[in-house]
Design goal:
heterodimer, A: Pyruvate-ferredoxin Oxidoreductase, domain 3, Rossmann fold, seven-stranded mixed beta sheet, six-stranded mixed beta sheet, B: alpha/beta, eight-stranded mixed beta sheet, 11 helices, 8 strands, binds thiamine diphosphate, binds iron/sulfur cluster, binds magnesium ion
Chain lengths: 568, 288
Amino acid sequence: MAKRQDFVVRFAGEGGQGVVTASEALARIAADVGYHALTFSTFPSQILGGPTWTQARISTTPVLSPGDSVDVLVALNEEAYETHKEDLSEDGVVIYDSSFTPNSSGRMFGMPFDDLAKQAGDIRTANMVMMGALANLVGMPVKFLQDFIVNRYLSRGQAIVDANMKAIAFGVERAASTTFQIGELEPPIKPNYKQAMIRGNDAISIGALAAGLDVYVGYPISPATPILIYMERNLIGSGKFAYQSSSEIESIAAIVGAGYAGKKAMTATAGPGFTLMGEGIGLAWMAEIPCVIVNVQRGGPATGLPTKTEQSDLMTALTPAHGDQLIPIIAPGTVEECYYGGALAINWAERYQGPVVLLSEHSLAERVQNIPKPDLSQIVPEVRATYQGTNGYQRYDGYELSPMPVPGKPGAYVANGSEHDAMGDTTHLPSRHIQMTTRRFSKLKLLEENVYERENTDAPIAVMPWGGSKGPAMEAYERLKAQGTNLAWYYSMRINPLPPKLLEELRKKELVLVPELNYLGQFASFLRSHGVNAQAITQYTGLPFRPKDLVNRIKDAASAASRKAVSV
Amino acid sequence: MTSKNPEYDFKWCPGCGDFGVRRALEFALQDFCSYHERPMNSNVIVAGIGCSGNLVHLVEGEQPYGFHGIHGRTLPIAFGAKMGRPDLNVVVVAGDGDFLSIGLEHVAPQAARNLDVCCVIMDNGVYGLTKGQSSPTTDLGVITSSTPYGKLESDLNPLDYYLSIGVSFIASGYSSKPKDLGKLIQAGMEHKGFSIVHVLSPCTTYNDNYEQLKGNAKKGIEPIIFDVPKEHDIHDREAAHKLVNAAKIPIGVIYQAQGRPTLDQRLEDLRGRVKVRSVQEQLEVFVF
Ligand SMILES: Cc1ncc(C[n+]2csc(CCOP(=O)(O)OP(=O)(O)O)c2C)c(N)n1
Ligand code: SF4
Ligand SMILES: [Mg+2]
């Protein structure tokens, strides 16, 4: 039997049962020995209890998506088993906790995780019992687990190490006594570069800090809270400030105030908070104040699906405020892009002197993945053009970006959210509204960068996902390519403004298929407004796409389009 | 605005109290700057939306920086500016509607933080700019354009409210005495912490209460305002409480807390206790 390239393990149980740590531990163990790992999790919106599941996909090559199906399901209670059994792959195996007995049979066996852990000498080793069993099922050398334990726990004493070793052995033993195998995993190919194991939200935080972030103000909200926590812990040096605000309305106005005062400022939120920030984002656009708003999307509207993933805030992010505006948007598609996107957002805000939205999403925010170690030297912090002259300066003069005065230095003006003249004084003259509107929109040109992915560009039909749907779409694209389907591939994390050359290419396509997680087909609609014949492939389940579904839907949409083209 | 700007199309009505407040703020800024030998451009005026907020465009003489933002959000903007740049002197100017209705949610958090900004509130007991609707300080039962049969809500006692939420410097002023008011505003700016100078600044168009405030001996109208008695101890919270609940409105410094650190001082203290890691060091945590 050919060896496996990858496998997916899902841990399902109740909140508080260590489900999350199990998948992260597995990912870490695998990455340590040279595999690639990607976790995916979804929790209930409650602290204790409630159905929780997380999974890890382990592969010999970089992992693009959570995958199609589950190869090993670790079910900690009956409900977990019932909910997830449908997702098992054909040769999938269920390991269930012996506290219950599934009312069906097949490729499954029970294990008393907690009892075995107690026998091993420490109840906290239940995870390692699972790991031992898993390693046996996929033919992974037990040494990988043992090395991990020694590295992690030796400093805490031999007793803990021994207990973990015993737990692993119990797991291996039990799994070996069954005849189930899911196929041996290919040995890892250890990357020859330094790696980081990091979560999307942390990657955004570090990217923003690398670009020189000074001030962070945010209000707790899933799934953006980890960014607040990260900043509160780390953004504390001299001249820096991180703070938990009393509301998102306060957050946005505070970062606008800090940006005005000459600082690089950011907030992070999710849908409900983002909506509250609308007026403040409009103020930053109108008064020309640099600032970054991270929106880690979740299902909406209203309180929506706080702990599920969706890409349904694009339209809101383009025009979060009332009136004429089009806010720059960067949407990272991978954990790595969270890092570079975080930095780029800060740079863009400084460069064009206005608000920038970094549009992330739940599935990326909580995803732990091993990526090449982010390169700090690749981030060149941009500094806004500031006014250096003496008094008598007209801050809002002209039709294009102009240097911004900083309080404490000459060039005093009034930053104004009402329409204004060159000094920033309120006015209602039509000629001024024309000048200032033109000026504000003209600055978007400064953000046009022809950076994007392209492949097989001669094909008449293209696939172009955005944000977190990049991974599943890429995986589907690769499979279709292997099957001989002729499709072009495009991708950009620069959503607004889109790279002009990319738009030029897209406009020439017969059809551009856009996989996206919303009902409206928001990005496809945005592309159509730019003269691209785009058609959305939508899903609104609160979960990411599965590559196998996308393969079918892309194929169907492409062949329907070709049939139409022929019949015309 | 140093000189008349023909494009600027807002005017206060003749007799509007805000003229006096503007003059007082100019006095305060000038004295504050010359006393501390700091440039005028190290001051930032964050203005609310209302007739009152237009003050930021009407300051004469040497120009401070200004920010005319959105309705009700002066404090959050000032919060970001001040915590980003503690070296700046940040002054909020706002109306009773802006500060005490739509923006009320921001007052108590800043009191708790003891944010080092000075707020000058122009209370005319009405929404001036939107043409005469009731505000939180409009008296119960008063007829306004939005309370055609009389206001159904009790009126807020702003001084008592500030005291109750722990504002660390509270003064009450009157717009017709710009020199005195200037002194109060300057004291507010000098105060290390969150200060509010709440100014009675009548609206001649929608709520002309000059006569009630000042009194009119000929008509036998007793003034509503009185000077804070000389013997009042401004550090005595109990005494301040009695003062702001008197039948009439005291003018002068009501209360000043002693020894309360400001938010930026607390932050500075925290920096001394916590190890700051560079971005490089932070990144290493994730590297394996
Ligand atoms: C979010 C929002 N809501 C409503 C308004 C309309 N508005 C402008 S000023 C104002 C009230 C002003 O009253 P006050 O703050 O007392 O200022 P005054 O004009 O009396 O000085 C209102 C309701 C607005 N600009 N923004
Ligand atoms: S309406 Fe009232 S508050 Fe507004 S400018 Fe006129 S007098 Fe002043
Ligand atoms: Mg008013």
